Amino acid sequence: MPSGDVNFNDSAVNHQTFLLVGIPGMREYNSWMAFPLFVLYALTLLGNLVILFVIKTEQSLHEPMYIFLSILACSDLGLSVATMPTMLGVYWFDSREISFNACITQMFFIHFFQWTESGILVAMAFDRFIAIRDPLRYSLLLPNTVIIKLGIAILSRGFCLIFPVPFLIKRLPFCRSNVLSHSYCLHQNIMNLACADTTVNVLYGLIIVVSTLGLDIVIILVSYILILQTVLSIASQTERLKALNTCVSHVCAILIFYVPMIGVSVVHRFGRHLSLIVYMLMANIYIAVPPVLNPIVYSVKTKQIRERICKMFQ
Questions:
Q1: Model pTM score
Q2: Which domains, ranges and CATH numbers included, belong to the chain?
Q3: I need a labelling partner for 53 at 20 to 30 A (CA). Which of 105, 200, 232, 234 fits?
């Protein structure tokens, strides 16, 4: 039988499934990665659920800053629930196969929650600016109705941006290898396996990155420039430090979210000489670490949340 027929038949068989990857070239060591991932997953669920419970039950925390934090916790939970089951399946049970539709669904929710989180960080930067620039009218300028509208706008933006992506993937034929590079599904990873022109996918992905990630980072930078200008105009050094201290948790959340994302992009673009294990570690850090660190940072750095958690466990 000609080789072309073999490839065609293989593509017909594999078209509806993809294979996820654990530790490249060392499948026998996958179980070593499973336990740390399980611990991270458990801590993510516990930490974010505790944050949500504390904010809901503590009346004094029903302020814009903490409402945004609760939305951030929901986004982190959604990202973990969307990715960790398949990751643990790969590393713990060597369950590598995922159906085409399940892969596309996972891809949709991963990107949706990521762009939602980016929007939340922008809203939190705006919130910190208002709180420091005009603290006496803080509650008046950001009432619950405005917070709800901002939350709906953030979710709508994430949904509208990612909604076309599954259809852009579904139109592509797949006749190459069906082995993905990670233990979860991403748009770029699936797209690279297609045996057709992916220019539309590439352009749309570029448009999303520039119009959301790029714009969000610029807005956050401008917000903090204005915050610094406001803080420097305060006469009392104690008040300056107090104002800046309210931003520490948010700055940590920004670094926790954007640094792994940029790191993965840099590694994929310029790190072709690096070991595949580096790709695997960066991909796992990119997905698993931010959702577990956010509740830890806010629990440690926010006095009201820290005290309420201590009372709850006592």
A1: 0.87
A2: 3-313 (1.20.1070.10)
A3: 105
